[in-house]
Amino acid sequence: MIKLFASDIDNTLENDSFPLSERVKKAMVEMQKKGVTLVLATGRILKSVLPMIEAFEMERFHGYAICHGGSLVYDCSSKEIIESLDIKPEGLAELYAYAKEHQLGYCCDQRDAVICTEYGPGPAYDFEVVGMDVILSRLHFMSYIKEPVFKSGFTASKEVLDEKTADAIARFSKDYTIYRATPTNIDITVAKASKGQALANLVKRLGLKKEEILALGDGDNDIGMIELAGIGLAIGNGSVAIKKAADRVLDRVEREGVLKAIELALQG
User: Fold this and answer.
1) What is the pTM of this model?
2) 97 with 185, same domain?
3) pLDDT surpasses 90 at 268
4) Which residues face 249 on adjacent strands?
5) Range of the domain at 164
6) For residue range 207-242, what is the model confidence (pLDDT) as tens digits?
7) 80 to each of 32, 141, 154, how far by Cα in Å?
8) Domain of 209: which CATH number?
9) Whether residue 120 sits in one domain with residue 244
């Protein structure tokens, strides 16, 4: 029996051309009414996830949100942060210097906004689709960082990142979790932070077993979650790697593939 349903958000529940549907909202609420705990796992900042938490009534059903790519875990009922890991200032300075050297945009998450050196495709998606506040600064970037940074990253065109990703991963993978989150974004968290690790910690906290977990995602950064789960699912528009790792590939996000995942959760 599935007791916990973990899902990515962007390109899994919605995307820039297909906003979250009323059918999915209703199905998520009905699933929780039947005793399944919902966990949203995303690279987004917490503030931008709160509207979805409200839409899914997760406070009422004691859900959880894994944000900033796994660096922060939020209890929707108590409204408390139960786990957080941040990048230290010296690490931020090193990453910022690398971005400038390689002519990449650089972004840092704060609790309520994303601070960026460039308004590229990644920050544009965050601002225009997700609804995050984005602060742009080239000359005084580091001065805007007032709070712990739970996730940072590089942003550029797909073509540029196709050339730069391997070098960035080779340079920083020893000290950080670093991955190509989207065609235009490389996300970076501390080495111990990932969606999979955050979910593993939460599962242990809740005393659940592998066979009681279902996880759904679209990207390589979701593979850790689906490997942890008894039922690991990939959305139809997902990456080649996650489709290979998944137990089953569902329909695309715009065809509401998540509804099949919910059906499987209630059957399992």
Assistant:
1) 0.93
2) yes
3) no
4) 234
5) 89-190
6) 999 999 999 999 999 999 999 999 999 999 999 999
7) 20, 29, 29
8) 3.40.50.1000
9) no
Checking 254-259 for CB contacts under 8 A at 24+ apart, the result is 254/15, 254/17, 254/18, 256/21, 256/23, 256/24, 258/7, 258/12, 258/13, 258/24, 258/27, 258/216, 259/23, 259/24, 259/27
Number of domains in the chain: 2
Same domain, 60 and 36: yes
When mean pLDDT is compared across 93-107, 115-129, 229-243, the lowest value belongs to 115-129
Distance CA 153, CA 122 (A): 10
Token pair belonging to 109: 């998450």
- What type of residue is 118? E
Token readout for 6 is 């973990």
